Amino acid sequence: MAAPIFKDIPDLEGIWTLQGVPWIVRKALKYASLSLNISQTTTIPDLPEKPALEVEGYDTPVTTLHVKQTVSPGNFDSEGSYSVNGEAKEYSLPIFGNISMQLRYMNTTEISDQDLQQKLSEGSPSKTVIDELAHNSTKGWNARVLWGFEVIDGRRYLTRNVITSKDERSVKARMVYDFQN
């Protein structure tokens, strides 16, 4: 099912199933399906033991995405919690290894690719995306992922637009997710 209009950044809670898997990936995974089960919490960080006038951002809510990725059949499931606050954190992910990731909310007007900016603006009433930056220093790659909503063939979907780069080369991909519930 396409994403309902009430689903928008920052509310990604639900189960999202990957659609339109490229031919080469389908051959590798054969009959596999991939889904993301996303829940989220929003908290206000604890106030440090300093007067409020000296502390910046202590009352800024922080959303944490709890993501369980399931690949069926297969043994590639993973689970993690990711704060959308712009701070880099270290993670160890089964497929990608040790990576540094940071996620932040970003207005669609900040997207430099004009075509992508237009698509994500049209699909998102809030005009907001999640900007994810990932870096694997051991393997030498970087990735930028924009999580947002797009209208594709008249239906609205959660998408993750990815640019992965290593050694002067880059690869672009778009993952499209159907909303399950």
UniProtKB/TrEMBL annotation:
InterPro entries: Pericyclase_pydY-like
Protein name: Lipocalin-like domain-containing protein
Top-level division of the source organism's lineage: Eukaryota
